[in-house]
Write a structure and sequence with these properties.
The structure is a homodimer of 266-residue chains. Chain A is an alpha+beta fold. Helix content of chain A is 34%, strand content 17%. Strand 8 of chain A pairs antiparallel with strand 8 of chain B, so a sheet runs across the interface.
Chain lengths: 266, 266
DNA sequence: CGTGCTGTTGAGGACGATCAATGACGGTGG
DNA sequence: CCACCGTCATTGATCGTCCTCAACAGCACG
């Protein structure tokens, strides 16, 4: 079996296939609409999408956005998988969030350019990223104020995800991993069962050692939740949700921020 | 460590005797001038402060803001100590943040009224709270746009605090507790050495059992960091910072959000 | 065919949870 | 003033989860 890495899915555009394949092959053939966490599709997004220009191809393992990044543009993941992380002083990697096609990268870093947090966005597979110039975004936001709501909503959801993770950090490793898997399924889309992450990456995000993560995987396989092969494939989503006591509401922006209008001054 | 302004903070004026004491006694005697992150000039804050009306006295242990709170007003802690928390299904309490006089309570809940997170703000001592009506706030924000930046900046700092806590959750208990104490010192102010929290509350926030928290306290006392009496009193702040590898930058709003303007529509 | 990354398995040990009981302190009512 | 009570702090003992170290197997890639 091929590696899981390199697989990405498209669930933004309606007609786009979301087939899984392996290793290093870039499969996303196009991306019609951006998908930020919590940003439901709307007519404004069409206008938004026109602002995006594909800028760069990023090799797997490279840093997309560095620690002291003061962005004059907003970065968007067009294709591939990435994560936001920091390094502990002992070298261990703390992963805060995974990003999939359509996600804004380090949104809070764009909204708060002066943040001194040593955050880093790293490509977990070969990626394509798009950028939106700050000036262009400014204009768009003036025409479509609700777009700003979406931006802020997405940032607030990032915070919700962090809070949620604080909760499960106090639970045993199996539930921690299970919850993380649930979250990825929810982010990836309804019919997605294959999670494009390695055990190492899941371990770094769940705060569990790689060895123990592997044992948890085996437990989950015995429970009939994960498939037997080397892939991270969920075969019993219902059971997984039960094990994790997962409630995906915290990922919904819903009508978040309704009534608010965000715009950019000069 | 420059300006450590705290989370969601409209902090008391500097000259005010806001000395805290141990569990049970709420001693903040007054609150004259608010202070908010990211706003150098205080003329906006004066206008802001006039909107606040003291509404209620909250008894220790009571809930200030319930889980499904859809606020038509913004709540502000005038006096006392409070915390934002959730309950685990087993009854354990997860504390996300402590609030001190001048802090906004559950700011994200105000910015995202539709959030379904079961968050709760609870009074840890007898408290006085103030409220700002949403309509009034709306008007004020239109006259003083930078206030909106402050609101959003404070919300983003809440997220930073959560992220930071995710980092230290992977470190041993002593450093976890030490870091939490550092954070409280930074939030309380420069000269404050007495932390108005019980070991139980610190345990619930640090994710350590109460028993083990007590043992950590004793270790910290042997290290000469905490005083010998039953109070949570820091006598060697420098050493505490070293133990925790604390860097308070993540609490700075700095010039966050400069260039942004937030206002409220209807 | 080596090299590197990921996944897998075993053994030993540390950290911290849990249970249980006691001490210290403040407040309350008799 | 004293007995009683509730909350918080403290201590000991036991046990489980999970980390660490170490080695090896499978697979992709040059």
């Amino acid at each position: 079996m091929g590696k899981v890495l390199g697989v990405c899915s498209l669930r933004c555009g309606a007609g786009l296939g979301s087939h899984m394949q392996h290793a290093g092959k870039a499969l996303c053939l196009g991306l019609e609409k951006p998908r930020a966490p919590g940003v439901a599709s709307s007519r404004h997004l069409d206008a938004f999408w026109k602002l995006v220009k594909v800028r760069d191809r990023i090799e797997r393992g490279e840093t997309i956005i560095g620690p002291m990044h003061r962005s004059k543009h907003l970065t968007l993941l067009v294709e591939g998988v990435a994560c936001m992380s920091t390094r502990h002083e002992d070298g261990a990697r703390q992963i805060y969030a995974f990003y999939y096609p359509g996600d804004f990268l380090a949104l809070h870093g764009f909204l708060m350019p002066s943040s001194t947090e040593p955050l880093e966005v790293q490509a977990l597979t070969n990626c394509f990223i798009g950028t939106i110039d700050r000036n262009l975004l400014e204009q768009a936001l003036q025409h479509h104020p609700s777009l700003g709501q979406s931006l802020w909503g997405a940032a607030m959801i990032e915070a919700s995800v962090h809070r949620q993770r604080l909760i499960i950090m106090r639970r045993p490793a199996l539930q921690r991993v299970a919850h993380l898997l649930c979250e990825q399924l929810a982010r990836l889309g309804s019919d997605q069962r294959l999670i494009p992450l390695s055990q190492i990456e899941i371990a770094d995000a769940a705060g569990v050692s790689v060895v123990h993560t592997n044992r948890v995987f085996q437990d989950l396989r015995k429970l009939g939740v994960l498939s037997k092969d080397r892939l991270t494939e969920v075969v019993d989503k219902q059971r997984l949700h039960e094990l994790a006591t997962f409630d995906g509401h915290y990922l919904d922006a819903g009508e978040a921020l309704s009534g608010w209008d965000v715009r950019i001054e000069g």
